[in-house]
Specification:
With 217 residues, the protein is mainly α. The longest helix is centred in the middle third of the chain and has 34 residues. The chain is globular. The model has no long low-confidence stretch (mean pLDDT 90).
């Protein structure tokens, strides 16, 4: 029987919704600004989570720790410089997550300053602080995870547009075995070994940048 941590789910829910919706919005808006009307026609130029949520992917993310959103469909035929613009569109999602982690770090700093006021409800401050801390962490994890060069992640699309033609065999290998690679990474500690160091580095850097103590979750 699964041990469902309702408190953790409630604390992580805002961060997950923001991370997924802003990630997909960034992909869609970047493609739209580069001349592609597809995301707008599909109603994806919004930070409202509903158009971006894939039900199964969202449930798995909440209860299993991994999942996915509905990918924004784009049409590179509208791009003036397809290789460059595909890289920009692919990178937009992870970059947005990095920006959102910084936004939540700033909000956490303001919250801690407000918490020094004895008139503020300390329990409310504590709960909100935990929500912000989870949101920082979730956005950083989503950023780093999506930069892995494995289909269908953003990192693969970036790699596909910068790798020289003589190395295309690498792309074919990754495409052929992507499902197996992802499954192995998810069900074993491999994924943690890969993304934990950069996640920890970015998280610690944000804490130091905003002059805050290290909060561990």
């Amino acid at each position: 029987m699964f041990d469902i941590d309702i408190e953790r789910i409630l604390l992580t829910l805002p961060g997950i919704l923001v991370a997924l919706s802003f990630h997909e919005f960034a992909h869609g808006m970047t493609s739209y600004l580069l001349g592609d009307p597809t995301p707008k026609n599909q109603g994806r130029l919004t930070v409202n989570p509903l158009p971006h949520i894939d039900f199964l992917g969202f449930i798995l993310l909440m209860f299993a720790g991994f999942g996915w959103a509905k990918p924004v469909m784009v049409n590179p035929r509208y791009y003036k410089n397809p290789k460059r613009d595909e890289i920009l569109v692919s990178a937009a999602g992870p970059v947005m997550n990095l920006v959102m982690s910084s936004v939540f770090a700033a909000l956490l700093k303001l919250l801690l300053i407000a918490g020094e006021n004895t008139a503020v409800n300390l329990e409310l401050v504590s709960i909100t602080a935990n929500i912000f801390i989870y949101a920082i962490h979730i956005n950083i994890v989503l950023c780093i995870f999506n930069l892995l060069p494995i289909p269908p992640l953003d990192g693969f699309h970036i790699l596909a547009n910068i790798i020289p033609p003589r190395r295309y065999k690498v792309l074919y290998f990754l495409q052929k075995y992507s499902t197996i690679i992802l499954l192995i990474m998810i069900i074993t500690p491999v994924i943690s070994y890969i993304i934990s160091p950069p996640v920890r580095l970015i998280y610690n850097t944000l804490m130091k940048l905003f002059g805050m103590p290290m909060f561990y979750i």
